[in-house]
Amino acid sequence: MGLTLFASHNPDLVILDLGLPDRDGLEFIRTVRQKYMTPIVVLSARTDEMDKIEALDLGANDYITKPFGTGELLARVRVALRLNRYGAMRGGNAPAGEFRAQGLRINYDRRKVFVDEQEIKLTQTEYNIVAFLSQHAGRVMTYAAIVRAIWGDTDSGSTKKLQVNMANIRKKLGSRPGSNTYILNELGVGYRMIDEDARSRGDQRMILALILFAVTYVLMLRLQQYRPWVALCSAVLFIVLGEAGVYTVFTPRRAAGRGL
User: Fold this and answer.
1) Helix, strand, coil proportions of the chain in percent (round to 5)?
2) 210-231: per-residue pLDDT in tens?
3) Is 110 helix (H, G, I), strand (E, B) or coil?
């Protein structure tokens, strides 16, 4: 009955009681999430933590236990509606295709995230945060920018809400110090997803450095009478390219910055 009403009315949001007369509410969530991303707010007398976790993991946007106040319900409904904002913003220009970076894979079309080809179960909010950061990979996104994109508000508790979600995301992605750090925390500023092409650019820079070394070596062999000048010019060239950021190199400016 519930699924028939859902399919015929195509609502903007579903308020769901888990104790449906014809089936369990969790099964309703599972069925709806196979095709639709309609926000679902669960109302239930079930207060067990495992019931809440299962409903949220299946795709519910929020879980409210009875009894509850009307004001709280309306506030949570407003938040749940904003959760759909990211996928539909800018006329439906949601990301498509895939994002890959060092074992992390995001399939935008299926809204799924994988680490080393193992699917990571994220809530809708967590997925939206990961997808948003991946679209701006390599750039630091401020707390305010992320909050506006995901929730649409910037109240005093928004940053804390983001930090809680981010802690869960990084835990699920298996982030540990020095390992699988896909999302970097720029303290006091925001978060940055690692660049999808960071490794290939590093390889290109290494190739360029090797080519320069090879050219210098050949010139020093062929122009032995000018060897000191070749060495001096090569050293200057390496320093200039390093200062320009073409590749990482020990330079006087970096040495000064480190207090050496």
Assistant:
1) 50, 15, 30
2) 777 777 777 767 777 777 777 7
3) coil
- The predicted-structure confidence for 159-209, as pLDDT tens digits, reads as follows 888 888 898 998 898 865 555 578 988 888 889 998 864 444 455 556 666
At position 109, the amino acid (one-letter code) is: D
Give every CB contact of residue 112 below 8 A, 6+ residues apart in sequence. Answer: 106, 119
CA 220, CA 214: separation in Å to the nearest integer?
10
Task: Enumerate long-range contacts of 238-246, CB under 8 Å, 24 or more apart.
Answer: 238/212, 241/212, 246/205, 246/208
From the CA atom positions of the chain, what is the Rg in Å? 26
Output the six-digit token pair for 170: 């990084």
Residue from 23, 20, 25 nearest 54 by CA? 25
Q: Are 215 and 237 in contact (CB under 8 A)?
A: no
Beta-bridge partners for 176? 179
Q: Angle at Cα 138 formed by Cα 133 and Cα 143, nearest 5°? A: 45
52/168 Cα distance (integer angstroms): 16
pLDDT value of position 249 = 43
Q: What is the mean pLDDT of residues 128-143?
A: 88
**Based on the number of CB atoms within 10 Å of its own CB, is 13 exposed (0-12), middle (13-18) or buried (19 or more)?**
middle
- Is the backbone of residue 63 left (phi > 0), alpha (psi -120 to 50) or beta? beta
Contacts of 196 (CB under 8 A, 6+ apart): 99, 100, 101, 134, 137, 138
Distances (CA, A) of 102 to 89, 119, 127, 164, 196: 29, 15, 18, 24, 8
What sections of 110-251 are H helices per DSSP?
124-135, 143-150, 158-172, 198-222, 227-243
SS3 62: strand
